[in-house]
Design goal:
Elements: H1 22-37, H2 41-51, E1 60-61, H3 62-68, E2 76-84, E3 96-102, H4 104-112, E4 116-118, H5 120-126, E5 133-136
Parallel strand pairs: 1-2, 2-3, 2-5, 3-4
Helix pairs in contact: 1-2
Length: about 180
């Protein structure tokens, strides 16, 4: 039986990046080849992440990198996104990282600690199947916008952040905030 109802269903997944950045498109061409010609799952995942929108490629801080790679020495941390500096971190360990983009501060600190920073095409030459590589990603839920998602602010047991003009005494401080005015959340 042919499922005629699904004859024209379009896949919602991206099959190419929306961006017209030539360097990104070259990386896609490279990893598309590697994903096809090697039976490595690593390349397929990298390719899929190269297609992703910016919201789905959250940044990874130096401190997060350091804590995630603490127990795995000799491996390259791969981030399909940006690596950012973390000023709260005093000592940066020796790291080997590959990323789409590394901020100026993070770059200086990694190199000063004796680490190395690779571009993704250099990584493809060194590890075409992703051997000795650890794929890492940042928290998508760390965006400010995500705090406003969920049950309506002010409803019982909601911890959603309201969109308020100001954080003063006169703004959303009564009902739902104190027991004498309806209920206390």
């Amino acid at each position: 039986a042919i499922d005629l109802a699904h004859k024209h269903v379009k896949s919602k997944n991206r099959s190419a990046p929306k961006s017209d950045n030539v360097y990104l498109l070259l990386l896609v061409k490279l990893f598309r080849f590697l994903a096809r010609r090697t039976d490595s799952n690593f390349n397929k995942v990298v390719l899929k992440r190269l297609y992703m929108s910016r919201v789905n490629r959250p940044p990874v801080s130096l401190s997060r990198l350091a804590s995630l790679t603490r127990n795995i020495s000799g491996n390259t941390a791969v981030v399909i996104g940006t690596i950012t500096d973390d000023e709260r971190m005093e000592v940066v360990p020796k790291l080997s990282v590959a990323a789409l983009h590394v901020t100026k501060g993070a770059r200086a600190r990694i190199l000063n600690a004796g680490g190395e920073i690779l571009t993704l095409d250099q990584l493809a030459l060194r590890a075409p199947t992703g051997s000795n590589c650890v794929l890492l990603r940042g928290k998508r839920s760390a965006r400010e916008a995500v705090k406003h998602f969920g049950r309506a602010p002010g409803t019982p047991n909601s911890h959603t952040k309201p969109y308020v003009r100001s954080k003063g005494r006169k703004f959303e401080r009564a009902r739902g905030r104190r027991a004498s005015r309806g209920y206390k959340n």
